[in-house]
Amino acid sequence: MKAGTFRGIVAPNGFRVCRIPTMRELGYQESCSTSVQLLAPAGIPEEARKALVGAIEQAVKAPGHHGEARAARIVQSYAAAEQMAAEIRED
Predict the structure, then answer these.
(1) Could you give the CA distance from residue 70 to residue 2 in angstroms, rounded to a whole number?
(2) What is the pTM of this model?
(3) What pLDDT score does 44 carry?
(4) Percentages (nearest 5) of helix, strand, coil residues in the chain
């Protein structure tokens, strides 16, 4: 943004980023959030699925990972594959 190659339009409430107005400053009481799911193809071999799930869980729960996220004011949570599958089915 500082280089002028792109322009921020709005920042989540509670964040001050390069003079970008927050949603509250623009009159919105809600903030924004993002959810990320990592999906694999149907029929993935069980051994591969377990390896991926274990690696992702280990990475997300690594102590240094959360420290950097907190410094950037990012709130993170982790849901096991079974929980995410149930939530996706509900939607």
Answers:
(1) 23
(2) 0.52
(3) 93
(4) 35, 5, 60
